[in-house]
């Protein structure tokens, strides 16, 4: 804003002779205009705040500083926490971006596109990609899962013809130990100060003996449910940290 004003004043001053403009780093909000022996001081408004803060505690510290946030209000959305620093003017905004964990993103994908896979691949995903989720009993059950196919055949030989009948049976050993549903614990965000917000997501399991595969899916609407719970917890924690002095809303400004 200061640079724009100086350029504008310089542009105007070109049509007048003997006009000079002076600035100094020590006073970034002032410009001095000299015309002959007359020196005029002009106050320049500082740039609007558009800060992007790193995490929860930085956000709270900014909100508690009246020089930064004279009359703030807070909006908590799924991708960021945004703050209007002065609700009467609504020009200046600071925010914190909420970055989702890769584990939550995987769960989102499994809700939209369930996956069928070999038991060993299901075990690998649950153990390595959805680690620390308190579902070891499911990993153990899938590790012991055994798909079997058995067949018996009977042939009949007649005059000028031969027929072969065969029946195939597919079954799963240890299937009774695999739950139809289970839950996975998952942190929601990687953003500093927000990693403590975790959710429990419900999964469904389907065993397909014919294809000898395991289908894993996140049950419908689970992601929306757990995300809303986490956002509510963030809003409540901000209200508590700010001692109820700052309005906090779910939504966007």
List the helices and strands and how they pair.
Elements: H1 2-13, E1 19-22, E2 30-35, E3 38-43, H2 56-63, E4 73-76, E5 80-84, E6 93-97, H3 102-112, E7 115-117, H4 119-129, H5 136-143, E8 146-158, E9 161-173, E10 181-187, E11 198-208, E12 213-218, H6 222-241, E13 248-250
Parallel strand pairs: 4-13
Antiparallel strand pairs: 1-2, 2-3, 4-5, 5-6, 7-12, 8-9, 10-11, 11-12
Helix pairs in contact: 4-5
The number of helical segments is 6
Strand content: 25-35%
Gyration radius, rounded: 33 Å
Largest sheet, strands/sense/barrel: 4 strands, mixed
Précis, in short:
By secondary structure, this protein is of the alpha+beta class. It has six helices and 13 strands. Among the domains are: 61 residues; 93 residues, no CATH class.
Description:
The protein has 253 residues and is of the alpha+beta class. Among the domains are: 56-99 and 234-250; 102-146 and 173-220, no CATH class. It has helices spanning 2-13, 56-63, 102-112, 119-129, 136-143, 222-241, and strands spanning 19-22, 30-35, 38-43, 73-76, 80-84, 93-97, 115-117, 146-158, 161-173, 181-187, 198-208, 213-218, 248-250. The strands form four sheets. The chain has a four-stranded mixed sheet, covered by helices on one side. Strands 7-12-11-10 form a four-stranded antiparallel sheet. Strands 1-2-3 form a three-stranded antiparallel sheet, covered by helices on one side. Strand 1 (19-22) and strand 2 (30-35) form a beta hairpin. The longest helix has 20 residues, at 222-241. The relative contact order is 0.15.
């Amino acid at each position: 804003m200061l640079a724009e004003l100086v350029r504008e004043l310089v542009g105007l001053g070109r049509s007048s002779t003997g006009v000079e403009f002076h600035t100094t780093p020590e006073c970034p909000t002032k410009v001095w205009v000299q015309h002959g022996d007359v020196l005029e001081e002009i106050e320049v408004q500082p740039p609007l705040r558009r800060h992007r803060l790193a995490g929860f505690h930085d956000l709270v510290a900014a909100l508690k500083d009246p020089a930064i946030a004279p009359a703030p209000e807070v909006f908590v959305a799924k991708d960021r926490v945004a703050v209007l620093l002065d609700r009467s003017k609504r020009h200046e905004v600071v925010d914190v971006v909420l970055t989702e964990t890769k584990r939550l993103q995987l769960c989102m994908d499994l809700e939209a596109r369930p996956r069928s896979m070999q038991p060993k691949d299901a075990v690998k995903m649950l153990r390595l990609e959805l680690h620390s989720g308190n579902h070891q009993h499911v990993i153990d059950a899938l590790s012991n899962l055994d798909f079997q196919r058995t067949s018996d055949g009977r042939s009949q030989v007649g005059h000028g013809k031969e027929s072969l009948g065969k029946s195939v049976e597919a079954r799963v050993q240890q299937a009774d130990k695999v739950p139809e549903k289970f839950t996975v614990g998952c942190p929601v965000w990687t953003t500093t100060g927000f990693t403590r917000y975790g959710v429990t997501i419900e999964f469904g399991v389907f065993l397909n003996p014919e294809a000898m595969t395991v289908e894993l899916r996140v049950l419908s609407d689970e992601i929306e449910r757990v995300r809303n719970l986490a956002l509510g917890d963030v809003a409540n924690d901000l209200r508590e940290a700010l001692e109820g002095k700052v309005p906090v809303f779910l939504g966007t400004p």
